[in-house]
Write a structure and sequence with these properties.
The complex is a heterodimer of chains A (about 375) and B (about 160). Chain A has 9 helices and no strands. By secondary structure, chain A is mainly alpha-helical. Chain A folds into 2 domains: about 170 residues; about 170 residues. The two termini of chain A are about 35 Å apart. Chain B has one domain. Chain B is about 90% helix and about 0% strand. The chains are: A mainly alpha (about 375), B mainly alpha (about 160).
């Protein structure tokens, strides 16, 4: 019995090792995917700490300046203020897009890594598609980040600059690579009867894997329930308020009512804050839930002691819950909640980095074995 | 690979491709125009106020409101289709750990796939019609997703419990 168990474990290990060969598509996608998520999260944390609030304050100041210019009947200053608002919003929007796309491409890379054994192409083709995916996944967010700084300089087009063109090219690379891998998957299903696939990665039932999987699905479910609540209770109210406050502001400016303009500006700022925290909490808890579920599958590759793998899983779950909960509390508790939310994000980054290092250790051990065999 | 698992994974990848294609189309052909439209109508509204012309300001604000309504929904459609697609794939991969009979699992998978397609499609329809039908379709789609997720979470929890 003991012999049978140890031979099964050896077989599982062999299967795991063979699926993670040097420069294999799966290894590229796992390391590249987690790397993209880590960089995307770091960009998000740096953005939240150093850019988000300052940028929001500048948008508010420019909007106030536009309203007061309208009050004074100064049309030139209204136009100037709105140009500033547009520039600040573009700066904010491109940074959010960089953060979101990098992380989402990381998730997609991890999913495609899991699916590799079912993609019925030769390894060399899968590797090319994996490289194409990773190049596109890096090109798009970098291009988006640069849109604000490069603008339309030297662009052959009237409305789209070089940074946008390269960002769109990156998106196209990702799309083509994903489509290619889908074709491979389709081919596998056509040949399925003759070629059953067994993947040791999915046989893992360790405690960290279970914690991450169940914790992840619970977070996704809570995120959906919160999203449904937001859509039912707040979404249409927020949209109506957004428009009515701005209309009141402009009417007050036309009627030369400075007090009303200031009240409308304050209400608009509060509304934007309320919207931002609710949407951010909804998006973050679902994304972290998805991340936890994805990482559950890669635990066999994390070459750390069992107790540490479990600790890092709990840290990841704790940080994933702390961030959205504290983001929701930001309007009530201000900077304290904001700092705690950033701390939650940092915990997720540290736990993810620890798992990434564990996977790197595993690749080192595998490569050393290959070297010894030679 | 079981039928329910295959359904989730294949639908997830197809939906991800669809969502990305939609996002690419929107970014290239529609987003810049939408943002320009929103910015210019807001600026026009304040300009009209500075010019003491409340009628023109109101018209410009209505244009801004409509443009923003459509823009927010277009971004939501793109984001939700891709997000739900990723969830379909991940849940599909973990589906052998859901501790229910295959028939019930197939039902859950069908509800999840249908919800993932219908919910953002309802949001997309709202860009053409602000009436109750697109909203109803959106609510129906999101209810399907939530019910399927509750079932899957219960199945996964039952599995973990049985191992411990």
């Amino acid at each position: 019995m003991a012999f049978s168990q140890s031979s099964t474990a050896e077989k599982t290990n062999e299967m795991l090792e063979s699926s993670f060969a040097p420069l294999s598509a799966r290894r590229l996608l796992v390391l590249g995917g987690i790397g993209l998520i880590l960089v995307g999260m770091l960009v998000g944390d740096i953005f939240a700490v150093f850019v988000l609030h300052q940028n929001a304050a500048r948008v508010g100041t420019s909007l106030a300046s536009a309203a007061h210019a309208a009050l004074a009947g100064d049309r030139a200053r209204v136009q100037g203020s709105f140009q500033d608002v547009g520039s600040f919003l573009e700066n904010r929007g491109t940074k959010v897009d960089t953060h979101v796309h990098m992380i989402d491409f990381g998730y997609l890379a991890l999913m495609l890594a899991i699916l590799q054994p079912w993609i019925a192409f030769p390894e060399s083709n899968k590797r090319r598609l994996a490289w194409l995916f990773l190049v596109g996944a890096a090109l798009l967010p970098v291009g988006v980040f640069l849109i604000h700084y490069i603008g339309l300089a030297y662009s052959p087009l009237q409305a789209i600059g070089w940074a946008s063109i390269f960002a769109d090219l990156g998106g196209l690379f990702v799309l083509v690579a994903t489509l290619g891998l889908l074709l491979g998957l389709g081919k596998h299903f056509r040949l399925q009867e003759s070629a059953p696939v067994q993947d040791a990665l999915l046989l893992d039932r360790s405690a960290p894997s279970r914690v991450l999987l169940v914790g992840g699905i619970a977070m996704v479910l809570v995120g959906f329930l919160h999203g449904a609540y937001y859509a039912g209770v707040d979404l249409y109210r927020h949209e109506a308020l957004d428009s009515s406050i701005l209309t009141d502001m402009a009417k007050a400016a036309a009627a030369n009512d400075a007090g009303m303009v200031d009240r409308a500006l304050e209400a608009y700022g509060q509304l934007q804050g309320d919207k931002a925290v609710k949407i951010a909490a909804h998006a973050h808890i679902i994304e972290f839930g998805l991340l936890a579920m994805l990482l559950a599958f890669f635990q066999p590759y994390v070459s750390l002691r069992g107790t540490w793998r479990l600790r890092w899983s709990y840290v990841l779950i704790f940080g994933s819950v702390l961030l959205p909960v504290c983001v929701l509390m930001e309007l009530r508790f201000g900077l304290v909640a904001g700092a705690l939310a950033d701390f939650g994000g940092l915990l997720v980054i540290v736990a993810l980095l620890a798992m990434w290092i564990g996977i790197l250790r595993y690749t080192g051990q595998l490569d050393a074995q290959v070297g010894d065999a030679r | 690979m079981s039928g329910s698992r295959r359904l989730l994974i294949m639908s997830g990848i197809a939906l991800a491709l669809w969502g990305m294609g939609y996002g690419l189309w929107y970014a290239v052909f529609a987003e810049h125009q939408a943002l320009n439209g929103m910015g210019s109508s807001l600026a026009m509204a304040f300009d009209a106020s500075a010019n003491r012309n409340p009628g023109a300001a109101e018209t410009a604000f209505n244009n801004y409101k409509e443009a923003k309504y459509v823009y927010d929904r277009q971004v939501d459609v793109h984001g939700h289709w891709i997000g739900l697609a990723m969830l379909l794939i991940v849940v599909g991969i973990a589906f052998d750990r859901v501790r229910f009979a295959e028939g019930y699992k197939l039902l859950l998978a069908l509800a999840f796939v249908a919800g993932a397609v219908i919910f953002p499609f309802g949001v997309f329809l709202q860009t053409f019609d602000h009436g109750p039908i697109p909203r109803g379709i959106t609510i129906f789609g999101s209810a399907l997703v939530i019910i399927a997720l509750v079932g899957i979470a219960l199945g996964l929890t039952a599995y973990v419990g049985s191992r411990e």
